[in-house]
């Protein structure tokens, strides 16, 4: 078995080494599933049929007809069922003095929330979803008094993110949205499964940082309004990416973390879910994480790109210093995620037919 990184390696990184490269190398040396997955990815990149395969998937997702949209809704319900069976994510302990509440970001088409409400029959939900007129998906969740759905772009919730004054020079100065969550609002379960949509109609200046803005909005508002010992379900991508590792590492400091990847759907993709249970939302480490993510949202919304890039470089250094300590836990949590994607890619037509 490979020995841990020597402290001298951590103290004196060479100029050419990036934290991303170190994480990748760390995993290649220790995790056979990740090594095999990496080889399959290379084969896929070298095969034009792989590009065609994923291009067709993107087209179906971006411009679905009614039949495809309904199938997508059913698929998300099936994924949610498997997630709950595997992790118990939607189990909400009833309280005698209040009604359980669920907060769902980027809810459409509504399959996840549908299943969560089934597993918690007494719960009510507040859900946000990007309007179809702005490029969002259609909502297929049946309208009910248990769900309040607000159609808006959550990345524009400046007041909720702690910013009450918008610079007059900002290109969307009139586009920010008034506060949606009161400081006392608390939820037992928070679903953070939004991702940037290619169909989303937004100004060009937002393109490069939109993923960071959406991700940090969900993390901040989800954790800030989570009932102590509640649960968060967070969609993440590419487990070995340093930003992904950073989020998981932070949550491990104040919650119980499990990782889940569906066994049938989206298996060839790098996406997966982090399920954080018994979240100590008032813990010092949780408050520190919220502060850090708010700073990132502010930088990508109001700051200069250079400032964010400088901030990101400092964050990379922190992950570099944490790699030796968190590496074994990352391997333990991630092995099954890489195994599922490896097995799916091995059976993909653009890999299987390579001679």
TrEMBL record:
UniProt domain Ribosomal RNA methyltransferase FtsJ: residue ranges: 98-276
Pfam family membership, one: FtsJ
Database matches in InterPro entries: RNA_MeTrfase_FtsJ_dom (IPR002877), SAM-dependent_MTases_sf (IPR029063)
GO biological process, one term: methylation
GO molecular function: methyltransferase activity
Record-given protein name: Ribosomal RNA methyltransferase FtsJ domain-containing protein
Lineage of the species this protein comes from: Eukaryota, Fungi, Dikarya, Ascomycota, Pezizomycotina
């Amino acid at each position: 078995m490979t020995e841990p990184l020597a402290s001298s390696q951590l103290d004196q990184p060479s100029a050419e080494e990036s934290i991303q490269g170190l994480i990748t190398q760390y995993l290649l040396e220790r995790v056979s599933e990740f090594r095999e997955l990496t080889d399959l990815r290379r084969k896929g990149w070298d095969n034009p049929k792989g590009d065609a395969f994923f291009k067709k998937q993107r087209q179906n997702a971006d411009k679905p007809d009614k039949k495809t949209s309904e199938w997508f809704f059913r698929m998300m319900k099936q994924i949610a069922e498997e997630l709950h069976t595997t992790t118990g994510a939607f189990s909400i302990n009833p309280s005698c003095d209040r009604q359980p509440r669920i907060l769902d970001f980027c809810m459409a088409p509504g399959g996840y929330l549908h299943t969560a409400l089934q597993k918690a029959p007494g719960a009510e939900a507040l859900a946000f979803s990007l309007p179809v007129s702005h490029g969002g998906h259609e909502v297929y969740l049946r309208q009910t008094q248990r769900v309040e759905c607000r159609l808006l772009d959550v990345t524009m919730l400046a007041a909720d993110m702690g910013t009450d004054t918008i610079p007059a020079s900002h290109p969307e100065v009139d586009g920010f949205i008034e506060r949606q969550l009161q400081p006392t609002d608390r939820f037992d379960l928070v679903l953070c499964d939004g991702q940037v949509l290619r169909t989303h109609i937004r100004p060009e200046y937002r393109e490069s940082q939109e993923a960071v803005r959406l991700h940090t909005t969900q993390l901040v508002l989800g954790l800030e309004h989570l009932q102590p010992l509640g649960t968060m379900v967070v969609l993440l991508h590419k487990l070995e990416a340093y930003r992904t590792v950073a989020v998981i590492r932070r949550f491990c400091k104040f919650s119980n973390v499990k990782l889940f990847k569906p066994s049938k759907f989206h298996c060839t993709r790098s996406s997966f879910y982090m399920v954080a249970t018994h979240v100590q939302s008032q813990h010092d480490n949780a408050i520190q994480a919220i502060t850090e993510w708010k700073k990132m949202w502010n930088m990508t919304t109001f700051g200069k790109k250079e400032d964010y890039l400088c901030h990101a470089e400092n964050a990379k250094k922190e992950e570099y210093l944490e790699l030796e300590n968190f590496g074994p836990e990352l391997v333990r949590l991630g092995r099954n995620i890489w195994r599922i994607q490896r097995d799916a890619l091995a059976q993909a037509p653009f890999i299987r037919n390579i001679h």
